[in-house]
Amino acid sequence: MLDRIALKRQAKVITREARVSAYLFTLLYLAIINVLDVINTYVNASVVTYMEEFFPGVPVPAFLLHAQSFSPVMVMFVSVLVALLTSVLSAGCAIYHLGIHRGEEMSFSSIFDGFSFVGKVILLEIVMYIYIFLGTLFFVIPGIIAAYRYRFALYNLCENPEMGVMEAMGMSNAQTQGYKGELFILDLTFFGWQFLCGLTLGVLSIWIAPYIIQTELGYFQQIKKIKGIGWFAPEDQQNDGEFHAQDPFGPDL
After folding, report:
1. What's the rounded Cα separation, in Å, for the pair 253 and 164?
2. Is residue 100 within 8 Å of 18, Cβ to Cβ?
3. How crowded is residue 18: how many other Cβ atoms within 10 Å of its Cβ?
4. How far apart are CA 101 and CA 81, in angstroms?
5. What ranges do the domains of the chain cover?
6. What is the pLDDT of residue 125?
7. Helix crossing, 165-176 with 118-136: angle to 10°?
8. Which of 143, 180, 191, 195 could bond to 136 as cystine, CB 3.0-4.6 Å?
Protein backbone atom coordinates (compact mmCIF):
# COMPACT_ATOMS: atom_id res chain seq x y z
CA MET A 1 0.00 0.00 0.00
CA LEU A 2 1.29 3.44 -0.91
CA ASP A 3 1.89 6.04 1.80
CA ARG A 4 -0.95 8.41 0.95
CA ILE A 5 -0.14 10.92 3.70
CA ALA A 6 3.51 11.20 2.64
CA LEU A 7 2.54 11.61 -1.02
CA LYS A 8 0.07 14.34 -0.12
CA ARG A 9 2.73 16.17 1.87
CA GLN A 10 5.11 15.88 -1.06
CA ALA A 11 2.41 17.23 -3.38
CA LYS A 12 1.96 20.31 -1.19
CA VAL A 13 5.69 21.00 -1.20
CA ILE A 14 6.00 20.56 -4.98
CA THR A 15 3.01 22.83 -5.57
CA ARG A 16 4.28 25.59 -3.27
CA GLU A 17 7.86 25.49 -4.54
CA ALA A 18 7.15 25.42 -8.29
CA ARG A 19 9.37 28.07 -9.87
CA VAL A 20 6.48 29.08 -12.14
CA SER A 21 3.47 29.32 -9.85
CA ALA A 22 1.18 26.30 -10.07
CA TYR A 23 -1.66 28.50 -8.82
CA LEU A 24 -1.24 31.10 -11.56
CA PHE A 25 -0.91 28.32 -14.11
CA THR A 26 -4.18 26.81 -12.89
CA LEU A 27 -5.81 30.25 -13.05
CA LEU A 28 -4.69 30.57 -16.68
CA TYR A 29 -5.94 27.08 -17.50
CA LEU A 30 -9.33 27.65 -15.86
CA ALA A 31 -9.70 31.03 -17.54
CA ILE A 32 -9.17 29.54 -21.00
CA ILE A 33 -11.47 26.61 -20.28
CA ASN A 34 -14.19 28.94 -19.02
CA VAL A 35 -13.90 31.15 -22.10
CA LEU A 36 -14.35 28.07 -24.28
CA ASP A 37 -17.36 27.03 -22.20
CA VAL A 38 -18.92 30.47 -22.58
CA ILE A 39 -18.44 30.35 -26.35
CA ASN A 40 -19.99 26.89 -26.49
CA THR A 41 -22.89 27.97 -24.29
CA TYR A 42 -23.49 31.06 -26.41
CA VAL A 43 -23.54 29.15 -29.68
CA ASN A 44 -25.84 26.52 -28.20
CA ALA A 45 -28.14 29.31 -26.97
CA SER A 46 -28.54 27.49 -23.65
CA VAL A 47 -27.87 30.75 -21.83
CA VAL A 48 -31.07 32.17 -23.33
CA THR A 49 -33.03 29.11 -22.18
CA TYR A 50 -31.51 29.45 -18.71
CA MET A 51 -32.52 33.11 -18.42
CA GLU A 52 -36.03 32.48 -19.68
CA GLU A 53 -36.49 29.62 -17.20
CA PHE A 54 -34.95 31.10 -14.05
CA PHE A 55 -35.41 34.83 -14.71
CA PRO A 56 -38.85 35.12 -16.33
CA GLY A 57 -39.77 38.66 -17.19
CA VAL A 58 -36.15 39.83 -17.33
CA PRO A 59 -35.33 41.10 -20.84
CA VAL A 60 -32.74 38.96 -22.60
CA PRO A 61 -29.87 41.11 -23.95
CA ALA A 62 -30.06 41.51 -27.71
CA PHE A 63 -26.60 40.07 -28.37
CA LEU A 64 -27.64 36.79 -26.71
CA LEU A 65 -30.59 36.43 -29.05
CA HIS A 66 -28.21 36.14 -31.99
CA ALA A 67 -27.09 32.79 -30.58
CA GLN A 68 -30.44 31.30 -31.56
CA SER A 69 -29.70 32.00 -35.23
CA PHE A 70 -26.78 29.57 -35.47
CA SER A 71 -27.39 26.52 -37.64
CA PRO A 72 -27.30 22.99 -36.17
CA VAL A 73 -24.13 22.32 -38.17
CA MET A 74 -22.41 25.33 -36.59
CA VAL A 75 -23.59 24.32 -33.12
CA MET A 76 -22.23 20.80 -33.60
CA PHE A 77 -18.94 22.12 -35.03
CA VAL A 78 -18.34 24.49 -32.11
CA SER A 79 -19.27 21.85 -29.52
CA VAL A 80 -16.83 19.33 -31.00
CA LEU A 81 -14.10 21.94 -31.42
CA VAL A 82 -14.41 23.09 -27.80
CA ALA A 83 -14.29 19.48 -26.58
CA LEU A 84 -11.14 18.79 -28.61
CA LEU A 85 -9.42 22.00 -27.51
CA THR A 86 -10.23 21.18 -23.90
CA SER A 87 -8.59 17.76 -24.30
CA VAL A 88 -5.41 19.27 -25.77
CA LEU A 89 -5.22 21.92 -23.05
CA SER A 90 -5.62 19.17 -20.45
CA ALA A 91 -2.59 17.48 -21.97
CA GLY A 92 -0.66 20.74 -21.65
CA CYS A 93 -1.72 20.95 -18.02
CA ALA A 94 -0.46 17.38 -17.48
CA ILE A 95 2.87 18.24 -19.13
CA TYR A 96 3.32 21.23 -16.83
CA HIS A 97 2.62 19.19 -13.70
CA LEU A 98 4.82 16.30 -14.81
CA GLY A 99 7.62 18.83 -15.30
CA ILE A 100 7.37 20.49 -11.90
CA HIS A 101 7.07 17.05 -10.30
CA ARG A 102 10.55 16.37 -11.71
CA GLY A 103 11.76 19.71 -10.38
CA GLU A 104 11.91 21.38 -13.77
CA GLU A 105 11.01 25.00 -14.47
CA MET A 106 7.92 24.92 -16.65
CA SER A 107 6.66 28.06 -18.38
CA PHE A 108 3.06 29.19 -18.70
CA SER A 109 3.28 28.34 -22.40
CA SER A 110 3.40 24.67 -21.38
CA ILE A 111 -0.38 24.79 -21.48
CA PHE A 112 -0.13 24.68 -25.28
CA ASP A 113 2.48 21.88 -25.48
CA GLY A 114 -0.23 19.32 -26.17
CA PHE A 115 -0.62 20.80 -29.65
CA SER A 116 2.78 19.33 -30.59
CA PHE A 117 1.15 15.87 -30.65
CA VAL A 118 -2.46 16.98 -30.95
CA GLY A 119 -3.49 14.02 -33.13
CA LYS A 120 -2.51 11.47 -30.51
CA VAL A 121 -4.10 13.44 -27.67
CA ILE A 122 -7.42 13.62 -29.50
CA LEU A 123 -7.27 9.99 -30.60
CA LEU A 124 -6.50 8.91 -27.03
CA GLU A 125 -9.48 10.88 -25.75
CA ILE A 126 -11.78 9.31 -28.34
CA VAL A 127 -10.59 5.74 -27.80
CA MET A 128 -10.73 6.06 -24.01
CA TYR A 129 -14.26 7.46 -24.25
CA ILE A 130 -15.35 4.51 -26.40
CA TYR A 131 -13.80 1.95 -24.04
CA ILE A 132 -15.30 3.56 -20.94
CA PHE A 133 -18.69 3.98 -22.64
CA LEU A 134 -18.70 0.31 -23.65
CA GLY A 135 -17.95 -0.52 -20.02
CA THR A 136 -20.97 1.43 -18.84
CA LEU A 137 -23.19 -0.63 -21.13
CA PHE A 138 -22.52 -3.51 -18.74
CA PHE A 139 -23.80 -1.43 -15.78
CA VAL A 140 -22.05 1.45 -14.06
CA ILE A 141 -19.35 -0.41 -12.13
CA PRO A 142 -17.56 -1.85 -15.22
CA GLY A 143 -17.49 1.69 -16.63
CA ILE A 144 -15.91 3.01 -13.44
CA ILE A 145 -13.34 0.21 -13.51
CA ALA A 146 -12.52 1.07 -17.12
CA ALA A 147 -12.01 4.73 -16.16
CA TYR A 148 -9.51 3.71 -13.47
CA ARG A 149 -7.86 1.25 -15.84
CA TYR A 150 -6.88 4.08 -18.19
CA ARG A 151 -6.26 6.66 -15.45
CA PHE A 152 -2.57 7.05 -16.34
CA ALA A 153 -2.87 6.82 -20.13
CA LEU A 154 -2.57 10.57 -20.70
CA TYR A 155 0.41 10.82 -18.34
CA ASN A 156 2.16 8.02 -20.22
CA LEU A 157 1.55 9.75 -23.54
CA CYS A 158 2.67 13.14 -22.22
CA GLU A 159 5.87 11.66 -20.81
CA ASN A 160 6.68 10.05 -24.14
CA PRO A 161 4.69 11.44 -27.10
CA GLU A 162 6.50 9.00 -29.39
CA MET A 163 4.47 6.09 -28.06
CA GLY A 164 1.22 4.98 -29.61
CA VAL A 165 -2.23 5.60 -28.19
CA MET A 166 -2.98 1.92 -27.57
CA GLU A 167 0.46 1.53 -26.04
CA ALA A 168 -0.26 4.34 -23.57
CA MET A 169 -3.57 2.73 -22.66
CA GLY A 170 -2.07 -0.74 -22.37
CA MET A 171 0.67 0.59 -20.16
CA SER A 172 -1.89 2.31 -17.93
CA ASN A 173 -3.82 -0.95 -17.70
CA ALA A 174 -0.70 -2.73 -16.49
CA GLN A 175 0.23 0.07 -14.09
CA THR A 176 -3.16 0.25 -12.41
CA GLN A 177 -3.58 -3.49 -11.89
CA GLY A 178 -3.80 -3.99 -8.15
CA TYR A 179 -4.02 -0.26 -7.47
CA LYS A 180 -7.51 0.68 -8.66
CA GLY A 181 -8.87 0.38 -5.12
CA GLU A 182 -6.16 2.67 -3.75
CA LEU A 183 -6.85 5.23 -6.48
CA PHE A 184 -10.57 5.07 -5.67
CA ILE A 185 -9.87 5.70 -1.97
CA LEU A 186 -7.55 8.57 -2.95
CA ASP A 187 -10.39 10.17 -4.89
CA LEU A 188 -12.72 9.79 -1.90
CA THR A 189 -10.26 11.68 0.30
CA PHE A 190 -10.57 14.66 -2.03
CA PHE A 191 -14.36 14.64 -2.15
CA GLY A 192 -14.69 17.30 0.56
CA TRP A 193 -12.27 19.65 -1.21
CA GLN A 194 -14.04 19.17 -4.52
CA PHE A 195 -17.39 19.88 -2.86
CA LEU A 196 -16.00 23.13 -1.49
CA CYS A 197 -14.67 24.00 -4.94
CA GLY A 198 -18.18 23.61 -6.26
CA LEU A 199 -19.59 25.88 -3.54
CA THR A 200 -17.10 28.59 -4.54
CA LEU A 201 -18.03 28.23 -8.23
CA GLY A 202 -14.61 26.77 -8.93
CA VAL A 203 -12.57 29.63 -7.44
CA LEU A 204 -11.07 27.36 -4.77
CA SER A 205 -9.88 25.05 -7.57
CA ILE A 206 -7.05 27.50 -8.24
CA TRP A 207 -5.41 26.24 -5.04
CA ILE A 208 -6.85 22.74 -4.74
CA ALA A 209 -6.51 21.41 -8.31
CA PRO A 210 -2.66 21.56 -8.36
CA TYR A 211 -2.53 19.75 -5.02
CA ILE A 212 -4.84 16.98 -6.27
CA ILE A 213 -2.94 16.57 -9.54
CA GLN A 214 0.44 16.41 -7.82
CA THR A 215 -0.83 13.81 -5.37
CA GLU A 216 -2.10 11.71 -8.27
CA LEU A 217 1.27 12.09 -10.00
CA GLY A 218 2.94 10.92 -6.80
CA TYR A 219 0.88 7.73 -7.05
CA PHE A 220 1.70 7.47 -10.75
CA GLN A 221 5.45 7.76 -10.23
CA GLN A 222 5.51 5.39 -7.25
CA ILE A 223 3.49 2.75 -9.06
CA LYS A 224 5.82 3.01 -12.08
CA LYS A 225 8.83 2.38 -9.85
CA ILE A 226 7.19 -0.52 -8.05
CA LYS A 227 6.06 -2.24 -11.24
CA GLY A 228 8.99 -1.18 -13.42
CA ILE A 229 6.58 -0.13 -16.15
CA GLY A 230 6.77 3.27 -17.79
CA TRP A 231 9.09 6.08 -18.74
CA PHE A 232 11.72 7.34 -16.33
CA ALA A 233 13.69 10.57 -16.49
CA PRO A 234 17.47 10.08 -16.89
CA GLU A 235 18.19 11.45 -13.42
CA ASP A 236 15.88 8.87 -11.85
CA GLN A 237 17.02 5.80 -13.75
CA GLN A 238 20.10 4.75 -15.67
CA ASN A 239 18.23 3.95 -18.86
CA ASP A 240 18.71 7.43 -20.45
CA GLY A 241 15.01 8.15 -20.41
CA GLU A 242 14.01 5.06 -22.37
CA PHE A 243 11.45 2.52 -21.26
CA HIS A 244 12.33 0.18 -18.45
CA ALA A 245 13.65 -3.20 -19.52
CA GLN A 246 10.68 -4.92 -17.90
CA ASP A 247 8.18 -2.82 -19.79
CA PRO A 248 5.79 -5.32 -21.45
CA PHE A 249 4.39 -2.65 -23.76
CA GLY A 250 7.44 -1.81 -25.83
CA PRO A 251 7.59 0.46 -28.90
CA ASP A 252 7.08 -2.50 -31.24
CA LEU A 253 3.42 -2.86 -30.26
Report:
1. 8
2. yes
3. 23
4. 30
5. 4-227
6. 95
7. 50
8. 143
